[in-house]
Amino acid sequence: xxxxxxxxxxxxxxxxxxxxxxxxxxxxxxxxxxxxxxxxxxxxxxxxxxxxxxxxxxxxxxxxxxxxxxxxxxxxxxxxxxxxxxxxxxxxxxxxxxxxxxxxxxxxxxxxxxxxxxxxxxxxxxxxxxxxxxxxxxxxxxxxxxxxxxxxxxxxxxxxxxxxxxxxxxxxxxxxxxxxxxxxxxxxxxxxxxxxxxxxxxxxxxxxxxxxxxxxxxxxxxxxxxxxxxxxxxxxxxxxxxxxxxxxxxxxxxxxxxxxxxxxxxxxxxxxxxxxxxxxxxxxxxxxxxxxxxxxxxxxxxxxxxxxxxxxxxxxxxxxxxxxxxxxxxxxxxxxxxxxxxxxxxxxxxxxxxxxxxxxxxxxxxxxxxxxxxxxxxxxxxxxxxxxxxxxxxxxxxxxxxxxxxxxxxxxxxxxxxxxxxxxxxxxxxxxxxxxxxxxxxxxxxxxxxxxxxxxxxxxxxxxxxxxxxxxxxxxxxxxxxxxxxxxxxxxxxxxxxxxxxxxxxxxxxxxxxxxxxxxxxxxxxxxxxxxxxxxxxxxxxxxxxxxxxxxxxxxxxxxxxxxxxxxxxxxxxxxxxxxxxxxxxxxxxxxxxxxxxxxxxxxxxxxxxxxxxxxxxxxxxxxxxxxxxxxxxxxxxxxxxxxxxxxxxxxxxxxxxxxxxxxxxxxxxxxxxxxxxxxxxxxxxxxxxxxxxxxxxxxxxxxxxxxxxxxxxxxxxxxxxxxxxxxxxxxxxxxxxxxxxxxxxxxxxxxxxxxxxxxxxxxxxxxxxxxxxxxxxxxxxxxxxxxxxxxxxxxxx
Length: 798
Prior knowledge:
The chain is of the alpha/beta class and 798 residues long. It is built from 19 helices and 29 strands.
């Protein structure tokens, strides 16, 4: 009996020691940005950090958190990233020379046909390799491999991790027991600004007490500077009709321009190859290209003319070369065993990547496996059941079984959520970048569910330094310094004339002038944006920032904003009750005595008419109803004009399909109208305006939203030499049906001559969720209800 008691006591001591040790373990944490600083921080993210898509349907994608990692965690992730990069490059060289392995990857036929050109022409040293590895903190280790337990030290050696003295410390868990990787984005990764500028902005908000990871954009731009000379032209290939693709390219382009390089924004088919050298055929920008950055996924380029085949054997330095497609497809995990038999070391890939089989492969426990699309890039088509609606989950499973070569089946790891200061838990994905073997910063995305997708929240990463004894240093150890002193913040200093490289010395007069102009422009742009997005207005988050960025550059373009005929239209339409401001039932008044308006408005006309009608509706309520307008005294809020334009500008001297400068010119004039007539009244303050997930604010006055579109946005290019800056209006640019209904809106009135294909997709999804769709044609006073049929994704040309 005594022996049993002593044994229980002995076990109890170890239990409480283990429990105390686990609770005292310091790990990553989510720190909340103070509410009083968040709104200004969000504006800085838009105008300084190139974040032009801060809203995704009802979700605010600019998080009010910052992920703080321990310095030891950062070093651990950097070591794993370095090991994975080395293994990836070695495997690519073997795959490139083996047609059998390439065939097993099930790449599109056109890619397999042209990849042979790279066998003799490709050398890694001639190009710039960029990768981003996505790490997830997990509850337990990846179980597809036997992993030895070791300590985190300075050197990674074989299957165990040793410290700098060469001794193995078994008291700390092996990194493969704490981390799993979901994929490597080796072909066109994103998140550039989040890993470059956001850490600077958020560290300033928090008082500069933390260190910052390396500046990704700085490392990438330096790689281009090493392979080019002063004055060289660097083509930036991207999908020119997508503003969310242009925003990271604008960051890189601005940095290249400040480093005495010419950044040429163009599409992939604006580059042709003569004797393996790249040339631009873009109108007004013809000539030799000294390097290029491909930001278009390789499989997307299959829709282009045959000239894209020159990307495979070009001698022009590029980032990234098409060989990056080998590890971009998740099917590469299916040939790991064959690569190992050919002498490739894939030790860390095997430890960190969950067990992967064919989509129709047999496994012991199907419930532990999920389907993933082979070329997924933003977390789409992943069958995590609890994170999806039953219909969406069943659709992914069905498609994976019908098209097995486009999917893989992977053992699911248990993601370990991180608890925020508010008590809520979020799942975390940390992307670590590496450029030419050089570690290049990191950023994170968080989500309430284990599925990290396109609607996840981008969160910057800061680093909390630790003392040599492993404890926390004073205020983050050494204040707000960089982890590497040579990775400076944006913007960089101008290059040296002798070497063409960036010098981190004294700022020149030219640089000071540039920074001054940039600062004044940002201030002006931000102030204009504030007028259109008053704090407390429920519709402010859906004002698209794209036309506000650098808006002063189009001040010389004169387009008249004539609202005379638009005002007459607005008076007639409101009098006929076709559209009307939303009524809010006053306190003390019975609901049966008031019939609230339930309409939201989309105006899809040419930019001039769209602005004119939107501003006329806004001004109509503010300037008085008049004798012929029936506006009751119980109507609150009026109309709120919401610019919904997302078209970008063409390069200097180039012809474009769409004149988006008209929108910016009209926006400037409408802004002056707001100021002159004092129309920028702030509605009643809302609560939770800085909420992470964009909850519906509580307010007493809700204006009727008037979304303004440019019907000329869909002009497609008629010549290959013209810059295509047409754009689609997308479903994520509008509130959900649930949000509309929460504001008392169940009907959408579209003022347009003809419903265009992109707006049909927006309206169909709203109709599908119970909204009524009314079409108001020109010269008509009463809208008619329309019923839209199902619109398939392939009906929308990209």
